[in-house]
Amino acid sequence: MEPLANEIRPRSLDEFVGQEHLVGEGKPLRLAIEQGHIFSFILWGTPGTGKTTLARIYANAINAEFYELSAVSAGKEDIRRIVKTPSIDGRPRLLFLDEIHRFNKAQQDFLLPFVENGELVLIGATTENPSFEVIPALLSRLRVFVLNELSNEDMAAIIGRTGFELDRDATDWLVEMANGDARQAITMIENTSRLYDTITIDTLKETLQSKFLRYDKKGEEHYNVISAFIKSMRASKPNAAMYYLARMIESGEDPKFIARRMVIFASEDIGLAQPTALVVANAVFQAVTTIGIPECIHNLAHGVAYLANAAKDRGSTTAIGQAMEDAKKFGNLPVPMQIRNAPTKLMKELGYGKKKESEPDDLMPEKLSGRNYFG
Question: What is 179-233 written as a DSSP string?
Answer without folding.
Answer: TT-HHHHHHHHHHHHHH-SS--HHHHHHHHT-TTSPP-TTSHHHHHHHHHHHHHH
